[in-house]
């Protein structure tokens, strides 16, 4: 059984691997080490890597494994404080003013204090992540940070280093217990050094063949053993040729699921041509693999598997 | 004995106060390792050293993989640094005597020593500024005095504005550079999803209205407005520096330097047979220094051209990183492709589909009878939004105006395509 501390956090790198595996996520040794460090040192973890290598999944699985709530902030261009941190409930505030008027309240300080109170505060993800139930700090996922702009990144500096936000009318909200922060980026833009410096950094790579096979076995249990070997060998080979967008693990799983649903037991050119859309997402890549190059890859993969026995 | 207050002394002091002091040598080694990384070009701050020691203290010394992962998560902050880190890690945590030699080989600092003998380009300018009187007759000895006078008059400037960069003397080029610095830069703007306060915006700013209302105790509630904030889109410049463009390369670099200085989010790439990102080099404030750093960074100055191949590289390695958020692309090339024209067609099509606006600047367009005859040019034309000349100051001015407004008719590449059909 995994060693778990009183606070529900794993006590060793092995137990990190174990609790993630229990949720069907197979983490490499280095990812497990970095995750363990992030939990121990209470630092945000910055995950970078190609699309579809399981960056977002880490946060989701971690939340499940640690039995913590998952709070997700999906970034986009123009994300602002009102939709990321907090907003005042204006209609309710206006009502409050009218009511106060009707009741004949004339003390302005008191009115202001009433209006900007917690009652009228709408909490958005960042604020939710900072105000958690005691002992159960949430997993806070800041997804695809590269999609937002530099201004929001700068704002995050305060949140990620001190785990607090300042609301001018209300005061500073500080997390009693810092949330477990996971930041992901697809590298469509360089994220500023200042932000990365506050985080632990890890580059999530495509898995090795053996690991990928293990992932397929877990995620697509109905998949034929022979077929899953072929799928993994084929995808690994595709990643070595010069495609515009390499297939990620998510795509491999999709493909394996698709082939299993179609009751295939082995790869053949026709099946590949029909289902290639689950694996490759650019027309140029699909056209290339549907041609002679795909044939070559397939025959190489089959020869390789035959040689391996 | 080191003088107190130097950087390394401070760092050592920090380490000494850490709880892992008992394990002495390991902490020392990590401090030393951080210095090695710093010499190899990574940028670990003093804080990183403390973090690293804390991290190792947390996981304990177990397997090499864990030790490597823990140190990497602290010291590596960019994926590009990973190979350097791996190399340094492999060498450092094996035998310490090797390090010095290897680092001396790998380190840019060591290389720098050799180059220091060469006078810095910036220093030439400084001495120019200090001893302008002395130097002037020597520098301009080949030019008749009368020309210097002419440049100061209006008509002289007019001549300069329409003169081809390729035909300018060094003195005229210097004058042209000064003109470029005076050029207004494009101010194209796109709306963002952010807002700012405005007196006549389209949106009601509820928050500001509420605060305003409270000031009067809620008796009077007047709406406050806000509007969408606007900012220039990212600009990506791909400039050809092959032999056929050599007359123009330097003056364009000057233009690009001014552009990068005045505008945020400008990314510049130079290409001949390979692709070089010189964004960082052009950020240098001194124009001479910036351009000298560009030429140092480029290995294929005034060589051949492989437009298709370099565009392919750009599309694969950089497009997704710099073309986000609706970038405008300036492609500066004469379109004389020696390689496979088919690749060129495919890649420029891909580039066109991943940016907001693709403007092709072609100095060959200076000839009034320009026809799209070259195969490379014909492959590229259908995929650009605009085709413009950039052979003199006036054309640069036009470019700036064109970028500030919507696409213009006279730059539509289709008119060349029409004449192309007539030819074939």
Give short descriptive properties of this protein:
heterodimer, A: 309 residues, alpha/beta, Rossmann fold, 3 domains, 5-stranded parallel beta sheet, B: 424 residues, 22 helices, 9 strands
Structural summary, described in words:
- The complex is a heterodimer of chains A (309) and B (424).
- With 309 residues, chain A is of the alpha/beta class.
- Chain A is built from 15 helices and 9 strands.
- In chain A, the strands form 3 sheets. Chain A has a 5-stranded parallel β-sheet.
- In chain B, helix 17 (307-317) runs parallel beside helix 19 (341-353).
- Chain B is globular, with a radius of gyration of 28 Å.
- Chain B has 424 residues and is α/β, with parallel strands linked by helices.
- Chain B has 3 domains: 7-114, no CATH class; 195-229, no CATH class; 235-423, von Willebrand factor, type A domain (Rossmann fold), CATH 3.40.50.410.
- The interface between A and B is large, with 49 and 46 residues.
């Amino acid at each position: 059984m995994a060693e778990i501390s009183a606070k529900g956090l794993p006590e060793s790198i092995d137990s990190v691997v174990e609790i993630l595996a229990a949720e069907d996520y197979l983490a490499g040794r280095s990812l497990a080490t970095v995750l363990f460090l992030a939990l121990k040192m209470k630092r945000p973890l910055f995950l970078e890597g190609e699309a579809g290598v399981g960056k977002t999944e880490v946060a989701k699985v971690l939340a499940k494994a640690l039995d913590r709530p998952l709070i997700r902030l999906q970034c986009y261009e123009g994300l602002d404080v009102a939709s990321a941190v907090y907003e005042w409930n204006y209609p309710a505030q206006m009502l409050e003013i009218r009511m106060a008027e009707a009741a004949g309240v004339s003390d302005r300080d008191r009115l202001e204090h009433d209006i900007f109170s917690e009652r009228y505060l709408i909490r958005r993800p960042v604020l939710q992540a900072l105000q958690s139930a005691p002992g159960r700090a949430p997993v806070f996922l800041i997804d695809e940070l590269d999609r937002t702009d530099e201004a929001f990144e700068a704002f995050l500096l305060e949140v990620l280093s001190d785990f607090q936000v300042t609301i001018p009318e209300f005061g500073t909200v500080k997390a009693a217990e810092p949330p477990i922060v996971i930041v992901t980026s697809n590298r469509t833009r360089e994220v500023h050094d200042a932000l990365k410096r506050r985080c632990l950094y890890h580059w999530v790579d495509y898995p090795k063949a053996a690991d990928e096979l293990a992932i397929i076995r877990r995620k697509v249990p109905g998949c034929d053993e022979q077929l899953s070997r072929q799928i993994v060998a084929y995808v690994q080979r595709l990643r070595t040729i010069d495609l515009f967008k390499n297939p990620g693990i998510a795509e491999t799983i999709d493909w394996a699921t698709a082939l299993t649903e179609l009751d295939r037991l082995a790869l053949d050119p026709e099946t590949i041509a029909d289902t290639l859309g689950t694996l490759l997402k650019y027309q140029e890549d699909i056209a290339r693999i549907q041609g002679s190059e795909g044939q070559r890859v397939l025959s190489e993969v089959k020869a390789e598997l035959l040689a391996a026995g | 004995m080191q003088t107190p207050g130097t950087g390394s002394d401070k760092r050592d002091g920090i380490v000494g106060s850490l709880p892992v002091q008992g394990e002495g040598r390991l902490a020392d080694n990590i401090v030393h390792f951080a210095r090695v990384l710093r010499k190899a070009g990574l940028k670990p701050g003093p804080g990183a050293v403390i973090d690293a020691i804390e991290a190792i203290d947390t996981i304990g010394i177990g397997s090499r993989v864990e030790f490597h992962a823990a140190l990497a998560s602290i010291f590596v902050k960019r994926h590009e640094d990973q190979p350097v880190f791996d190399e340094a890690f492999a060498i450092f945590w094996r035998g310490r005597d090797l390090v010095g030699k290897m680092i001396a080989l790998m380190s840019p600092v060591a290389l720098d020593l050799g180059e220091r003998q060469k006078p810095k380009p910036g220093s030439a300018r400084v001495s120019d500024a200090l001893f302008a009187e002395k130097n002037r007759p020597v520098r301009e000895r080949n030019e008749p005095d009368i020309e210097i006078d002419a440049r100061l008059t209006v008509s002289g400037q007019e001549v300069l504005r329409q003169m081809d960069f390729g035909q300018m003397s060094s003195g005229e080029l210097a004058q042209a550079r000064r003109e470029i610095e005076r050029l207004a830069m494009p101010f194209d703007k796109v709306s963002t999803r952010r807002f700012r306060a405005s007196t006549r915006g389209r949106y009601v700013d509820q928050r500001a209205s509420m605060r305003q209302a409270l000031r009067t105790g809620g008796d009077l509630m007047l709406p406050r407005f806000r509007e969408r904030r606007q900012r220039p889109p990212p600009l990506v410049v791909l400039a050809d520096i092959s032999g056929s463009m050599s007359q123009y390369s330097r003056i364009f670099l000057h233009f690009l330097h001014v552009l990068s200085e005045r505008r945020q989010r400008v990314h510049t790439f130079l290409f001949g047979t390979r692709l070089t990102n010189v964004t960082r080099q052009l950020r240098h404030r001194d124009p001479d220094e910036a351009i000298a750093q560009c030429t140092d960074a480029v290995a294929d100055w005034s060589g051949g051209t492989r437009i298709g191949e370099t565009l392919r590289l750009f599309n694969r390695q950089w497009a997704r990183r710099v073309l986000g958020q609706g970038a405008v692309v300036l492609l500066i090339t004469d379109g004389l492709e020696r390689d496979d024209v088919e690749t060129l067609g495919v890649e420029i099509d891909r580039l066109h589909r991943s940016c907001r606006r693709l403007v092709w600047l072609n100095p060959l367009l200076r000839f009034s009878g320009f026809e799209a005859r070259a195969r490379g040019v014909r492959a590229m034309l259908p995929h650009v939004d605009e085709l413009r000349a950039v052979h003199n100051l006036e054309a640069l001015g036009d470019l700036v105006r064109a970028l500030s407004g919507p696409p213009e008719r006279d730059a539509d590449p289709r008119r060349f395509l029409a004449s192309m059909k007539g030819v074939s």
